[in-house]
Amino acid sequence: MIVTKSKQELELMKEAGRIVALVHQALQEVIEPGITTKELDALAEKVIRSHGATPSFKGYGGFPGSICTSVNEELVHGIPSERKLKEGDIISIDVGANFKGYHGDSAWTYPVGKISEEDQRLLTITEESLYRGLAEAKPGARLSNISHAIQTYVEAAGFSIVREYVGHGIGTKLHEDPQIPNFGPPNRGPRLKPGMVLAIEPMVNAGTRHVRTLDDNWTVVTQDKRNCAHFEHTIAITETGYEILTKL
Predict the structure, then answer these.
(1) What are the Peptidase M24 domain coordinates in residue numbering (predicted)?
(2) Is 168 annotated as a binding residue?
């Protein structure tokens, strides 16, 4: 069942989203060669808690970190550790914050120092695919129009869409209905209504679409070990279109 949010609930979700955006802002300022993913995790948790929220991911299903830190061929769910970032890496950071019982969720992939032209193109295309999907988020439209817009843009650029992981509804639970694939035909699924809150998150591989999970039972990597990217915003459907909640 898809739960629409009241005006009061949306205000709480806006604050959760604002906190998530503040975390990304703080992390972006310190991402450089030599910093560890554990240091990024500690900074993220500090920012989240300083604004009266708690990390949505910490303890979720047993996840040990406050954020997910996925480097290079790691797609999602990377566990913060003593790993030091190095020049030329790319890192996907997924941040969730729970503010007064409501979640915000956003992921972004960042360059570490100077990166290759190929990786920069991967980041650019994946980020743009997010906004291509969001352009289809309007009341009365079918949910799968978002999915189709993302897939067609990514595949036209020569990259692959991951099928095993999808976007989702969000609210008092981190993952709510509906599931939102980043692929599929248009004009399918439920019609969007004002008050729906959705986490749209293209996950894109430079090589084939296939992924696998490492022995830690969390970290998802590309099977061909080529790099991947992940961009995500939480949005609310409005009377006229959509509003991004996870931005300043």
Answers:
(1) 11-239
(2) yes
Q: Tell me: domain 7-244, CATH 1.10.860.10, correct?
A: no
C-alpha to C-alpha distances, 166 to 30, 142, 180, 182, 226, nearest whole angstrom: 29, 16, 5, 6, 20
Q: What angle do CA 146, 207, 232 make, to 5 degrees?
A: 35
Is there a binding annotation on residue 175? yes
Q: pLDDT band at 26, cuts 50/70/90? A: very high
pLDDT tens, position by position, 146-183: 999 999 999 999 999 999 999 999 999 999 999 999 99
Dihedral sign for Cα 130, 135, 138, 140, please: negative
Cβ burial, residue 93 (10 Å; 0-12/13-18/19+)? buried
| Annotated binding-site residue? 155 | no
Rounded distance, CA 236 to CA 142, Å? 15
Domain residue extents for the chain: 7-244
pTM here?
A: 0.98
For 61: left if phi > 0, alpha if psi spans -120 to 50, otherwise beta; the answer is left
- 94 marked as part of a ligand binding site: yes
Amino acid (1-letter code) at residue 237: I
Please give the average per-residue pLDDT across 223-246, as a whole number: 98
24 annotated among ligand-binding-site residues = no
